[in-house]
Amino acid sequence: MRNRSGTRKGQALIMVTLALMAMFGLMGLLVDFGYAFFLEKMMQNAADAASLAAVRAALDSGTGPTSFTCGTTAVCAATPVSCASATGNLQVGCQYALQNGFDWTTPNTTVTVQASDRNSPPTVLGCNPLTHHPPTAPCVDTYYWVTVRIARNVPQLFSAVWGNGMGVVSARATAAIAQSTTLGNLILTNRENDPWIGATGTQLDNTGNANATVPGGIILASADPVDAGFLQGNSHVAASYTWIRGSGGVRLQGSATWIAAPQNQASNPNIPGSDSDPFNSPFVDPFYGDGQPPLPDATTLGSLPLVPVPGGTLTTTICPSGVCPPGIYYATNTSGLPTGAPIGIWQGNFQFRWNGNFDASTFIFFGGLRIGQARVNFDPGRYVLAGVNLSFGDLVFETTNQSFIQGGSTAQGNHDAGRIFILTDERYAGDQLAPARSRVPGLPDLAFGRTKVIAGNNASSSITLQGLNRLDQSLPQSMHPYSPVLFWQDQRNSNYRYDDQGRYFCSNFNVACPQDLTDGRGNPNPEFWMQATQFLNIWGAVYQPRGAWMQLVGGNLQTGPIQVVTGAVRLQGGSDLSLTGVETPIVNFVASLVE
Amino acid sequence: MRRRAGHGQRGNAFLEFTLVGIPLIFILISIFEVSRVLWQYNTAAHAVREGVRYASVHANNCAVLPNSCTVTIGQIAQQIGYHGAGVVPADLLNVQFIWGEADQPAAFTCPDLQTCLNGGGPAAQYWPGPPPGAAPVGGGFFQMPITIRAEYRMRSVIALFWPGSRGVRVGNFQLPVSSTEMINY
C-alpha cells in the first residue's frame, strides 16, 4: 500500500502542469489572439481614417482634382516615414491615427505614411489599360495617394508559456484621389421650378411615338410629383433603372410604357443623394464644382496664328490643300475688318490638323461654325465656337443633312485623344478668351448661340465624332475631368445660374435661379437641337448645364455610346434614342479608400 | 469500526463524485463549447466583414477604364477564407452577396464558401462592380451599401444532449453572420 501510495505522489503535479500548459495555450488563443483581433480592427479603422483624411486635406486645398504634383498642398514621401516627421496634409492624416488611439511616440507603436503623385516613384505605371497606381492597390488609376501603416508590438499574456512572448499586429490602408463614376447615362438636372420650352417640372418629354432606350440608367432631378417624366402616344422608355429625386413621378398616356418602373428617392432608401453633399449626389450636375474645360494659357493663345476668313467662307486659299492649322479664325469684310459672321464651310474637303499636342491644337472660331455640303475632318483638339453676331443668325454651330463630318472613331478601344467642341460666347469662363480676342481689334460683341446638329440619311452624309478620351496619353491631365465630353455648352448659356467654380449659384437648389442679365448677354436660348439618323455616330458625352435643354427630332434610330447631361429633353417625331454608354463615362474625382 | 468507516467513506466519495462531478464536467464542457461557439462566430463574422470591406474598395469605380480592379465572387471568397482562421469553408453556408442592406435579395449566392473557393457556383461572377469597362448593372455605386450574409454551421458535441436529439450524431445549428459596408470605391 505504501508503495502504491508513493508512486502516486507527484503525478498530480505533472498532470496539472501539463494541463495548465494546454489551458494556458487555449487561454492564449482566446485572450491574446482575441486582443490581437480587436486591436487589428481598431488599427484598420485608424489607418482608414488617417489615409482618407490625408488625401481629403490635399483635395480640399488643391486647385483641382487632377492638378496634384508633389509639393506643399500634396506632400509626398517616396518611402514610409514616421508620423513624427510628417508635414502638411500627411500630418493631418497622422492626427486621425492619434485620435483613434495610435500614438507613434509611445514605445512599441509605429505609424508611418507614404505618399506620391501620379508620376513620381513609387507610383507604378502598369496594368492593361495602363494605370498610375500605388504599389499596394494595383490597377487603380490615381492622381495622388497616401498609404498609412500602423503596427504595434503586443506583449503576450498566456501565449508566452509557449515561447511566444511578443506579437506584432499591423494594418494598412491606402486612399487616393481617383475617378468615381457618375450615375446614369441620361442625366437630366432641371428641378421642378426650372423653366424651359416644355412644361416646368417636366424633364423627359416624349410627345410623339419616340422610344428611349438607356441601359445605363436615367436620372431625373425634378421632384415634380406628377410630370417629371411625361410619355404620350405610343412612346416607350426602357432603362435599367430610373431614379427620380424626392417624390417625383411620371405620367403615362395612351399605350406608353416605362420599364423598369421609375423609383422615387423618397421611397427607396438605397437611392443616395442629398443637396448637402452635391459632389456626390446623382441629382446634381455631375460637373458640379469642376469649373469649365480650361483653354490653353495666355502664352499659347497669344501665339496661335490669326486666320482672317474673307467673307466668312473657308477656302483652300486659307487652308492650303484643305489642311487648316490651329488658329484664331474670324470672318472679315472686304475691308479686312472682322464682322463676327460665322465661318462657313460650304463645299470641298477640309481637315483641321492636329499640331503635335493637345494645347497647341486649339481652334477658335469667333462667330461660330457652319458646315454645308462639305467633307470636314476634325483632328483631336479643342474647338472653341466663340459666340455669334446675331445679325447673321443665332446658330453657333450647325451641320446640315449634306455634311460629311469625321473625327476619331466610335469603335471601342480604337479612340484617339479626342476633341471637344466648346459652345460659348466671346467671354468664356473667366474671360479666358481675352488673350485671343484682344488680337482681333474691331471684333463686334458676340452672343451665345444655339447648336443644331443634323445628320444626313446615307453614309456620305454622315457624322462620326469622338469625344475626349482620358485613356490616351496625349490628353493633358487638366482635361481628364471632362472626358468623354464631345460637346460642352457654356454654363452661362442657360436659364439657370452657375458661379465661376461651376457650382449652383443659389444655395437653395430647388428654386429657379435665373442668370444675371446685367452683363449684356441678353436672354439666352440655350437649346441643343439634334436631328438624328442612324448616320449620326457619336462616342462621348453631350453636356449642357442645368437650365438648358435638348430637342431630339427625326424618325430614325439614334444609337451609340453616348452619355447625355442636360436640363431636360424633348423627344418628338418618332425619334428613337438609344444611349448604349461609353466605356470611359463621365467621372467625378473623389478622395476614396482604394485598398 | 475502521472497516465500516473506510467502507462508508468510499461510498460517499463515489456518491459525491456522481452528484457533483458529472454536472461539473457537463458545465465545464459547456463552458468550452460555448466559448468555442463564440470564437467561431466571431471569427466567421470577422471573415465576412473583411470580405465585404475588400469588396467595398473594388466596386463600380474599379470598372471605369483605365481602372481594372473589380473582383469576382471567387476572389472575395478567398479573402473570407484567408481571414477566417478556424472557420471551415464547407460549413459557411448560403453565402449571399447583396447590393444594398441585408434585407435586400441576394444578387449571388454560394451554397457554401468551399464551392466558391473551388471556382464553382457564382465564383466567376463580378461583384459588386461589373467587369472592367462594362456598365454597372445592379448596384455597387459609390457610397451605397453592400452586404455579405452567411450562416455558419456549428457542429456541437454537446448538442447530443439537447432534448429531442436523435441517435448518436453530432448536433448542428446555424449561426447567421452578416456585414454591411458602404462602397468606398
Q: CA-to-CA gap between the ends of chain A?
A: 71 Å
Rg measurement of chain A, Å = 31 Å
Average pLDDT rating of chain B: 86
Question: Structural class, from helix and strand content of chain A?
Answer: alpha/beta
Percentage of residues in helical conformation of chain B: 25-40%
> Treating each run of at least 4 consecutive H or I residues as one helix, how many helices of chain A?
5
Which oligomerization state do the chains in this entry correspond to? heterodimer
The portion of residues forming beta strands of chain B comes to: 15-25%
Overall 3D form of chain B: elongated
Helix content class of chain A:
10-25%
Low-confidence region ranges of chain A = none
C-alpha-based Rg of chain B, rounded? 24 Å
Largest sheet of chain A: 17 strands, parallel
Largest sheet of chain B: 4 strands, antiparallel
**Helix/strand order of chain B, N-terminal first:** HHEEHEE
Low-confidence stretches of chain B: none
